[in-house]
UniProtKB/TrEMBL annotation:
Protein's name according to its UniProt entry: Peptide chain release factor 3
Alphabetical keyword list: Cytoplasm, GTP-binding, Nucleotide-binding, Protein biosynthesis
GO molecular function: GTP binding; GTPase activity; translation release factor activity, codon nonspecific; translation release factor activity, codon specific
Protein source organism: Copranaerobaculum intestinale
Residue stretches making up the Tr-type G domain: 9-278
PANTHER family, sorted: PEPTIDE CHAIN RELEASE FACTOR RF3
């Protein structure tokens, strides 16, 4: 294997998905701790700001520096080069959260052991399903009162429709969380120390029948563990790596990110089972990460908060080839060659200029306003376009109107540019122009951001009225006239900026009605560009 192939083979690019408060930030921090990227826990930026109650975007940005620090973190561990992609949650939940999963090759799903699968996890899981990427489950907070582990596995299977395989088994929970039993090695890891999660935790390893282990756990826990392992071995299906690789089977790990219990064994197993960079589909067929020609796609655009420079940062996932600083690439959608200015990469809380990067890596470049979500960058000798990034259905809608009608041009420009960045989705009522615009987002904060950015960057004031709609569906039928559809009176026919027809519904009942009354109608939850 060449050095080039080795560099790609050792890369692991994944996202951590969870419902707020399940422990995503804590786990990320602990992975960085084990990877040597930080020396003690508590130093990952954005942890507190993630919980910011005020929906003041500028304020949030200011506190985070430029906020990009947490977009992707790279570190080395046991010969692997790991890229963790941040999926913004809490108040920041937006389409970016979904799009980040387009750049990941696998996902780690963090679940709170007392709560089980929660709404945001479900939504993010659906996106993983769409891509058939491997999903690894970390059942967190075992150091607190937790649901029965058998019940948790069943719950994940029934809520998400994915098969599970417990890689390890918890020994006790809450104050009595003593360790885990590793099924593949048939050994007990009894946790010790860890300095309340500040440092790496020690463990005593031993066979289930080892006297030392038995004494350490105590007779009751030992007997219970033996019984549960027997039950588990008898009940569960065989481990199947192929099923893991195509996202049909989720390996499950129990642990506690806060106390570090189970974090390192999780990381070790995960790195072995997860995938190196995956190929992506393009106009020229599948592009392998090992192709020598450079290719990448933009999956996230972040507005720069520095008003003096209205530039933005575009994040690209390298699909194939090798990136070197100062390299010229072909921007397919712009139809011209460009030099990627100040490419940056992020390590824990530092930003660094990237000298070189490989397939699987994510880099951020300054964007003078030329990029859109889904754009392809490639080598001039081999122009291709990657499959577009789908548009995800917003769940919040608002009608916006500009207050000063003299500023029409700035208003349209601002809305269009912000929509192009993917910060909001814009809909127009059929048969109406841009006089009345409906905006959609998957998180409510997106509207506050829009309002503030139109004001500060484009000097436009708007009036924003929240609309009582909850869902949107794209009409898949070519040539079907939406005006002829039989819909409930509270449904709205609209089109997006790409001219695709959609229907906005007040609730799921409206969708059901539309499907029942219009047999030929094909509705899609995710918008793809034809
Ligand atoms: P998130 O990014 O998924 O939103 O969750 P985050 O890691 O911020 O964790 C949410 C809360 O849960 C934090 O407590 C964190 O300390 C706690 N937590 C995370 N993992 C564990 C765990 O394994 N066990 C226990 N017992 N708690 C855990 P907080 O009090 O809200 O915040 P903080 O003051 O500790 O920062």
């Amino acid at each position: 294997m060449s050095d080039y192939q080795k560099a790609i083979e050792k890369r692991r690019t994944f996202a951590i998905i969870s419902h707020p408060d399940a422990g995503k930030t804590t786990l990320t921090e602990k992975l960085l701790l084990y990877g040597g990227a930080i020396l003690s826990a508590g130093s990952v930026k954005g942890k507190k700001t993630n919980k910011h109650a005020v929906s003041d975007w500028m304020e949030i940005e200011k506190q985070r520096g430029i906020s990009v620090t947490s977009s992707v973190m790279q570190f080395q561990y046991e010969g692997c080069c790991i890229n963790i992609l941040d999926t913004p949650g809490h108040q920041d939940f937006s389409e970016d959260t979904y799009r980040t999963l387009m750049a990941a090759d696998s996902a780690v799903m963090v679940i709170d052991a007392s709560k089980g699968v929660e709404t945001q996890t479900k939504k993010l899981f659906k996106v993983c399903l769409l891509r058939h990427i491997p999903v690894f489950t970390f059942i967190n907070k075992m150091d607190r009162a937790a649901r029965d582990p058998f019940e948790l596995l069943e719950h994940i299977e029934s809520e998400l429709g994915i098969a599970t395989y417990a890689m390890n088994w918890p020994i006790g929970s809450g104050k009595d969380f003593k360790g885990v039993y590793e099924r593949d090695y048939k050994r007990v890891l009894a946790f010790q120390g860890g300095d309340h999660g500040q440092r790496e935790v020690d463990s005593v390893n031993g066979d289930l029948n080892d006297l030392k282990i038995r004494n350490l756990l105590g007779d009751d826990f030992h007997a219970q563990l033996c019984e549960e392992i027997e039950l588990l071995d008898g009940a569960s299906t065989e481990f199947d790596q192929n099923a893991v690789s195509c996202g049909a089977l989720s390996p499950v790990f129990f642990g506690s990110a806060l106390t570090n219990f189970g974090v390192e064994p999780f990381l070790e197993h995960f790195l072995k089972m997860t995938t190196s960079p995956l190929p992506r589909n393009s106009s020229a067929g599948e592009i392998s990460p090992f192709d020598e020609a450079f290719t990448a796609f933009i999956f996230k655009i972040q507005a720069n908060m520095n008003k003096a420079h209205r530039d933005r940062i575009a994040f690209m996932r390298i699909v194939s080839g090798h990136f070197e600083k100062g390299m010229e690439v072909y921007h397919m959608q712009g139809g011209r060659k460009i030099k990627l200015a100040q490419p940056q990469q992020f390590m824990a809380d530092n930003r660094e200029i990237v000298e070189e990067a490989y397939a699987g890596d994510v880099i951020g470049v300054f964007d003078p306003g030329i990029f859109s979500i889904g754009d392809t960058l490639c080598n001039t000798s081999k122009p291709i376009s990657f499959d577009p990034i789908p548009t995800f259905a917003p769940e919040h809608f608002a009608r916006i109107q500009q207050i000063d009608t003299m500023k029409r041009k700035q208003f349209i420009k601002g809305i269009t540019q912000i929509a192009q960045e993917g910060a909001i989705q814009v809909f127009q009522e059929l048969n109406l122009g841009m006089e009345e615009i409906i905006v959609g987002g998957v998180g409510v904060l997106q509207f506050d951001v829009l309002k503030q950015r139109l004001k500060s960057e484009y000097n436009v004031d708007i009036k924003l009225d929240i609309l009582p709609y909850q869902c949107v569906r794209w009409i898949e039928n070519e040539g079907l006239d939406p005006n002829l559809l039989n819909l409930t009176s509270d449904s709205k026919r609209v089109k997006d900026l790409k001219g695709r027809n959609l229907i906005i519904f007040a609730n799921n009942w409206g969708i059901k009605w539309a499907a029942e009354q219009n047999k030929e109608l094909i509705l899609a939850e995710v918008g793809t560009i034809k």
